[in-house]
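User: Structure please.
Assistant: Input sequence and predicted structure:
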Amino acid sequence: MEAAFFDLDKTVIARASMAAYGPALRRAGYLNAPMLLRAAWGQLLFRFFGADEATMDRARRTALRLAAGWEQESLQRFAREHLAEVIEPIVYDEALDLFAHHRAEGRLLVLVSASPVEIVAPLADHLGVDEFVATTPMIDSEGRYTGEVEFYAQGPEKAEAILRLAHDLDLDLSGSWAYSDSATDLPMLELVGHPVAVNPDRDLRREAEQRGWLIREFDNPVPLGDRVPIDRNWIAASALTAVIVLGAILGIRRLRRRAPQV
């Protein structure tokens, strides 16, 4: 069997997924304004100058430190509840067309992303892809993030994960396709017979031109609900639940501030 491997950020969706979730995370109290400014600056550097492995590693470590102490279950629920708000408007129409094409050709669809599994899993499920590879943070015995990583799906690690998947599922990589925007994904692109540079950064564009790889420009983000039906009732119920929980938390905080200090 052949497969089609898709990077997520700026390949399937028009923004970095972690940055896209930033405003919602701030509203829910996970992030503060300085954290968002640092993330926005990092995204500008990534967008205009690309990112080498050292830069990506520093960004990963910063994100992990910010998440240390957060409950995994709460963040998983948060990511699913905000899928429509955050990700739904920025999925590339061209990527969805490719999903449909490769499905029709009988290929396995695989999302391969350095974003955390808490973000990648619900989107992979909603898009109906067959498999996914994502960064897996370490969790302590109480279900909280430790600030360390169990598996980081970036660069060579992505390629190693694909090789394991190919071995387990008997995939023909020579007949498979891979799509990415970043030169950090060269190890993944080099594994397959049909590598494609999508909205490539400067270094990947240069490599693709030198190697004669196909280059594609995606520029039409569309509401995912226009192409993939979204259960709006489930979203409304989830949003209501989130509002109730957040209201309760804020109410408790106000009561604590008003309580006399002993």
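The chain has two domains: 3-230, 231-262.
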